[in-house]
Amino acid sequence: MTRATRVTLRLTGVVAATLLFVTIPSTPAVGGAALPVGAWESAARSWAWPVAPPWRVTSAFEAPATRFSAGHRGIDLAARAGDVVVAPADGVVSFVGRVVDRGVVSLAHAGELMSSFEPVESALAEGQEVRKGEQIGILGSGGHCDGACLHFGVRLRGEYVSPMLYLGGVPRAVLLPLRWFEDTR
Ligand SMILES: [Zn+2]
User: Fold this and answer.
1) What is the DSSP string of 110-139?
2) How far apart are the C-alpha atoms of 57 and 93, rounded to whole Å?
3) Measured distance CA(85)–CA(129) in Å, rounded
4) Residues with CB in 5 Å of ion ligand 1
5) Helix-strand-coil percent breakdown of the chain, rounded to 5?
6) Mean pLDDT for each 10-residue chunk of the chain (185 residues)?
7) Cα(94) to centroid(ligand 1), Å
8) Which domains does the chain have, with CATH numbers?
């Protein structure tokens, strides 16, 4: 493949992604995408916010163009060190420990969804069940939030998606990026 071809293909991908983003119907289409509609609709907008209100998103989700490229693989919610962090949905602790300079907690949920939180200090153990709204730890320090926010990430079948898709009280428009992400990966 020549360099020109590669550039053209890349541009085509960008244009296709842009078109998908703006032409997505407000309800998920059946067929085409690998995502079973019911699986995520059952979780959509039913999760609890992991910190107490008032909620303020200090940094939005930014889907990485590829698995390895830059982006913001979650949202940052304003919070202070010591604030209680709760499970957004029923689940099982799949990871608790330190990653570089911060505590990280990851939960596995129904529908092949995973949530993760940092920086969080937690007394939970891997394999432990948690219920929606149950405390999973307190906000710690380190990472890009470093005691000023909670980084909240969600993966659907291993792919990062916006946590806003699952939180209640947000505009319908924020549901669009999930379809975009599924259709273009
Ligand atoms: Zn973040």
Assistant:
1) TTTEEEEEESEE----TT-EE-TT-EEEEE
2) 25
3) 15
4) 76, 151
5) 25, 30, 45
6) 51 43 38 44 82 93 86 96 98 97 97 97 98 98 97 96 85 43 39
7) 20
8) 3-184 (2.70.70.10)
